[in-house]
Structures are given as structure tokens and as C-alpha cells.
Design a protein that fits this description.
With 343 residues, this protein is of the alpha/beta class. It is 47% helix and 13% strand. It is built from 15 helices and 8 strands. Bound molecules: flavin mononucleotide. The site of flavin mononucleotide (FMN) has 21 residues, from strand 2. Flavin mononucleotide binds next to strand 2.
């Protein structure tokens, strides 16, 4: 690791941890924001497995502004899932500033939250059609005004998450990153795909390296990190100060432990099937306790991820998709686990 690389990692750690306590020599590994996935329960699980920083899923700045209850619930942060950043999406600088100001006046304390991230990467049509998410990459000046306004209003650092560009004909991550830095962003997370690619093809690590070289603020590399090997590849190819993982953590919060071990020069931790199923059961229990009654249905996709590649998992998924309550779901996973232990 080069000196500049280590210095950037330390700087990022100090932003994430506030005040720099607990600085580690290795790059931090962050859980990416994921709508419908990175709720408080999942964030806690990832922190327990060695994740250095979590984000809420994207939260509508205008929903918070108009005090929508469901939106407010998305930003309830438990100390066990910190350090944590709140991610907002929106395209109006004044509304963003007002929302950030009121967020800290009435809903959260700056001691609970390490950063506010602004989503400029979401590719979903319902978001981009409203000029939010990655559609802001087509208007860097407006994006810069949003960040400037948020920085002025916020007692905590503002970060920005964006993509390679809108499409192949308008790749502008490097210029965009410079605008974000000039506007006051404390760190940047870059997913190396265009909006039009959505999740197809491979994340462009050369492009992330160009962004790293173009700005002085720490850059977090994101895209296709599923294991310790791909984490090391991202670091080596880009020189990024931190790593961000989304799909690689689905059904595998252990990925943080695996990567941290490798970066600390230890043997990477690889969970057994029994540990993965144990995590699935704990996830169901905590999720249903936090979200109540019918929430077990949200766990179906998680069970599919936890059991991916396991013998008999196709049949389990079929049963899980038609189960009627939390108890039945737990029984199905337990029976699957028991059957595997006697194999
Ligand atoms: C189900 C899902 C939900 C996502 N929701 C968000 C979100 O709320 N905010 C955001 O910035 N990115 C979101 N993303 C994008 C991820 O944060 C990440 O940039 C992308 O998946 C690439 O990283 P990966 O290759 O590690 O999955 C989402 C991705 C997935 C798969």
C-alpha cells in the first residue's frame, strides 16, 4: 500500500469514526445503501461481522421534509449499527438544505450519525424520472449546488455516491467528482457502471482509478466486490481509500469478516453452511421482532440468498415462498439445517 493510499484510508476512517478514534491501518470496508435491504437489523448484523460503516437505504429528502412517518422510520439508528450515515435523495438544493438542517434539529443528533450521503447514482426509472439519483450526473452544476447547500446546513460531513456517468456517450465521473469535491463533499463513493448499464457488465475499475487520481478527498470503490479476492483487486487496481459492498453482503454479512481478515494479513474467514443458516435464523428473529406481524414475507429473499448454492435450496425456496407466518418460516429453515447436519 502506498503512503498516499494509507493516508487517505486514515482520513476516511477519521471521517467515518468521527475524531479518528480507533484508526486502523487498513482501508475501511463499508456496507452500501440498499433500498429494502439495509434496514437497522441488517446494518447491525454487518457491524457485528466487522463492517466499518453502514448506510441507511436511500431516504427521500422531500418525504423527510414533509414529515412522512414511514420515511422517518427509515432513519431510526441504533447505536449497535454505528458508525452509520443517512442517505438522502433529492434534486432541490433549498429543500435538501432545509431537510438536513431539520433532520439534526428534530430527528437525530450529530453524535449518532457520521455522515449524510447524497444519492446521485440510483438508476431506477421512478427515481431518475423525477430528476433524482443518477439523473443528477447529467447536470453537474445542479448536483454541485445541492452538495454545497447540504454542506452549509449539516453539522456532519456530506458525502456523495455516484456512478461512472449516465451512459457510454456521457461518461463524466472524473469531472463530476471534481465538482463534488469543490462543492464540499468530504468523501465520494463511485460505482463503476453507467446508469444505462444498471447492473450489467463489469464495474469499471480503471475509471475508479481515474477518479481517485483526480481528487484529494477519499474515494470509496464500489462494484462487484463479493470476496476477499475481489476486494484486493479493487484496492490494487484503483488505489481507493475504502471499499463498499452491496450485493456481496446479501445473505453473507460474513463477507466483512472475510475481507477484514485478508486485509489484516490473516487467513480469510469462510463461513460454514451451518453458520450461514444460523445467521439466517437470527436474521428472521431480529427482523420480525423489529418490523412485527406480516414482515416475515420480506425475509423470503434473504433466505434465498443465505441458502444460495446449497443442496436442496431450490425446494426450500419454493416452500418458503408459500409459508404463512414467522413460525413456519423458522421451522422450514431449521428442518433444512437439521437435514444438512445429518447428510
Ligand atoms: C437491492 C438494491 C438496492 C439498492 N439501493 C440503493 C440505495 O438505496 N442507494 C444507493 O445509493 N444505491 C443503492 N443500490 C446500489 C448499491 O449501493 C451499489 O452501488 C451497487 O449494487 C453496486 O455495488 P455491488 O456490486 O457491491 O452490488 C442498491 C443496489 C441493490 C442491489
Amino acid at each position: 500500500m502506498t503512503a498516499r493510499f494509507c493516508e487517505k484510508s486514515r482520513e476516511l476512517f477519521s471521517i467515518l469514526k468521527k475524531g479518528g478514534e480507533g484508526q486502523k491501518p487498513r482501508p475501511p470496508v463499508l456496507l452500501a445503501p440498499m433500498a429494502g435491504i439495509t434496514d437497522s437489523v441488517f446494518r447491525r448484523m454487518c457491524i457485528r461481522e466487522g463492517c466499518d460503516f453502514t448506510f441507511t437505504e436511500m431516504v427521500s429528502a422531500s418525504g423527510l421534509h414533509f414529515n412522512n412517518k414511514k420515511t422517518r422510520d427509515l432513519i431510526s439508528i441504533d447505536p449497535a449499527e454505528t458508525p452509520c450515515g443517512i442517505q438522502l435523495f433529492g434534486h432541490d438544493p433549498a429543500l435538501m438544505a432545509d431537510t438536513v438542517k431539520r433532520l439534526f434539529e428534530t430527528l437525530v443528533s450529530p453524535d449518532e450519525i457520521s455522515s449524510v450521503d447524497i444519492n446521485m447514482g440510483c438508476p431506477a426509472p421512478k427515481i431518475t424520472s423525477n430528476c433524482d439519483g443518477s439523473s443528477l450526473m447529467r447536470d453537474p452544476l445542479l448536483a454541485g449546488r445541492i452538495v454545497e447547500a447540504a454542506v452549509k446546513a449539516s453539522p456532519v460531513p456530506i458525502s456523495v455516491k455516484f456512478r461512472k456517468g449516465w451512459d457510454d456517450a456521457s461518461v463524466n465521473a472524473v469531472e463530476f467528482a471534481r465538482v463534488m469535491e469543490q462543492s464540499g463533499a468530504a468523501f465520494l463513493s463511485v460505482h463503476g457502471r453507467t446508469r444505462m448499464q444498471m447492473y450489467s457488465g463489469a464495474a469499471d475499475r480503471e475509471l475508479i482509478a481515474e477518479v481517485v487520481a483526480a481528487v484529494s478527498v477519499p474515494v470509496v470503490g464500489n462494484g462487484d466486490i463479493f470476496s476477499a479476492d475481489s476486494a484486493v483487486d479493487m484496492l490494487e487496481k484503483t488505489g481507493c481509500a475504502g471499499l463498499m459492498i452491496a450485493r456481496g453482503a446479501q445473505g453473507n454479512p460474513f463477507v466483512f469478516r472475510e475481507i477484514a481478515a485478508r486485509l489484516d494479513g490473516k487467513t480469510p474467514f469462510v463461513p460454514t453452511e451451518s453458520e450461514r443458516l444460523g445467521a439466517a435464523l437470527a436474521h428472521i428473529t431480529e427482523y420480525c421482532r423489529d418490523h412485527g406481524g406480516g414482515s416475515f414475507v420480506d425475509m423470503r429473499k434473504h433466505i434465498a440468498w443465505y441458502t444460495k448454492g446449497m443442496y436442496g435450496s431450490t425446494e426450500l425456496r419454493r416452500q418458503v415462498n408459500s409459508c404463512r407466518d414467522e413460525n413456519e418460516l423458522v421451522s422450514l429453515v431449521r428442518a433444512f439445517m437439521d437435514a444438512r447436519e445429518v447428510l
